[in-house]
Structure formats: structure tokens, C-alpha cells
């Protein structure tokens, strides 16, 4: 498959029909049903077909993908499952998401489970990223407008084995 630098998709209905047909063929060939969701992002409406789409961190994964970063979700290991893995030329990032806990707890899980250890022999920088999403919201008012923000905390640490 040749990766193109710019999109040739122009008509939303035609493009969506193309992808829906493509996913139906995948489902038939792989003998599995993919979940379908629609996410509103700052770049517009994004359609996602996949497995584990009920995860609370899906929008973050889609954002990385839209930025051109190859990101793997729910990566199985011998001692658990990484929420996200990004492999780049010189760096491997392991991202763990938490809900109403702490970013530090997410990083501790990466360390305790040894998620980055399999990449230690590859002479790359290993980075653990913990992201905590808060289910609470903060209201900011002004000029008869109220904006709701979810609280997100994050922490990063470099891991060496």
C-alpha cells in the first residue's frame, strides 16, 4: 500500500460509503465485527472502526493518529496490556491512561509491569507517559457563556533497564 501525502477524498457521503464497504469486506474476511463510532475532533468529524472502541482514551488515540503518529492500542504483554505504544526511530513511548486516579500511578504500572523492558535491547530512549482523566468538570463562565473542561493531568519519566 502506498502512503499518500494528501487526501483525495472530497465528498463526505461518497467517502464514508467507500470506507463502510471496505470495513464490511474486512469483517467478512476476518470473520469478526468491528465497532463503529463517530468522534468530533478539532479537525472535524472522524469515523472510527475498530476493537475496544469503548475505552475512555479513544479520542486521545485518534488524535495521535491524525497527527501522523503510528500508535498501537491495547498491546498485550506477558504481564498485562499497555494502553498505548508509540515506536519511533530513536524513542519508544508507553502510554498508560487512568480515570480519576493519578498520572503517577499510571507510570508506576508501566514500571511494575515492565511494559518497556522488551525494548531495552534496541538502544532506544524509553519513555513512560501517564495520563489521568478526571470525570469531574470545571465550569468557566463569562459573557453568558459557560465552557466545560475535563481535568487532565499527565506525567512523564524516562526508564532505563
Tell me what the structure shows.
By secondary structure, the chain is an alpha+beta fold. It folds into two domains: 10-54, no CATH class; 55-159, 3-Layer(aba) Sandwich (Trna Endonuclease, Chain: A, domain 1), CATH 3.40.1350. Helices cover 24% and strands 44% of the residues. A hairpin with a 2-residue loop joins strand 6 and strand 7. The two termini are 37 Å apart. The mean pLDDT is 75.
SSE order and pairing:
Elements: H1 12-30, E1 35-41, E2 44-50, H2 58-66, E3 71-77, E4 80-87, E5 91-99, H3 103-113, E6 125-142, E7 145-159
Parallel strand pairs: 5-6
Antiparallel strand pairs: 1-2, 3-4, 4-5, 6-7
Notable characteristics:
single chain; 161 residues; alpha+beta; Trna Endonuclease, Chain: A, domain 1; two-stranded antiparallel sheet; globular; tRNA_endonuc-like_dom_sf
Major beta-sheet overview: 5 strands, mixed
CATH class of the largest domain: Alpha Beta
- Number-wise, the strands total 7
Q: Which range best describes the helical content: under 10%, 10-25%, 25-40%, 40-55%, 55-70% or over 70%?
A: 10-25%
End-to-end span in angstroms?
Answer: 37 Å
Shape: globular
Q: What is the number of independent domains?
A: 2
Q: From the alpha-carbon coordinates, what is the Rg to the nearest angstrom? A: 19 Å
Low-confidence stretches: none
Alpha plus pi helix count: 3
Strand arrangement within the widest β-sheet reads 3-4-5-6-7
Q: What would the average pLDDT be, to the nearest integer? A: 75
What is the name of the CATH architecture of the largest domain?
A: 3-Layer(aba) Sandwich
InterPro entries: PDDEXK_9, tRNA_endonuc-like_dom_sf
Protein name: PD-(D/E)XK nuclease domain-containing protein
Organism: Arcicella gelida
Pfam family, one: PDDEXK_9
Amino acid at each position: 500500500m502506498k502512503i499518500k501525502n494528501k487526501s483525495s477524498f472530497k465528498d463526505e457521503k461518497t467517502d464514508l460509503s467507500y470506507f463502510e464497504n471496505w470495513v464490511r469486506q474486512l469483517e467478512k474476511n476476518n470473520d469478526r465485527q468491528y465497532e463503529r463510532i463517530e468522534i468530533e475532533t478539532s479537525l472535524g468529524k472522524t469515523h472510527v472502526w475498530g476493537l475496544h472502541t469503548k475505552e475512555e482514551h479513544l479520542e486521545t488515540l485518534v488524535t495521535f493518529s491524525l497527527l501522523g503518529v503510528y500508535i498501537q492500542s491495547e498491546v498485550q504483554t506477558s504481564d498485562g496490556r499497555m494502553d498505548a505504544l508509540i515506536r519511533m526511530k530513536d524513542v519508544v513511548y508507553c502510554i498508560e491512561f487512568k480515570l480519576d486516579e493519578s498520572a503517577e500511578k499510571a507510570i508506576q504500572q508501566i514500571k511494575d509491569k515492565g511494559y518497556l523492558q522488551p525494548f531495552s535491547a534496541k538502544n532506544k530512549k524509553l519513555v513512560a507517559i501517564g495520563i489521568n482523566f478526571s470525570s469531574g468538570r470545571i465550569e468557566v463562565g463569562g459573557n453568558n457563556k459557560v465552557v466545560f473542561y475535563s481535568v487532565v493531568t499527565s506525567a512523564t519519566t524516562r526508564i532505563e533497564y
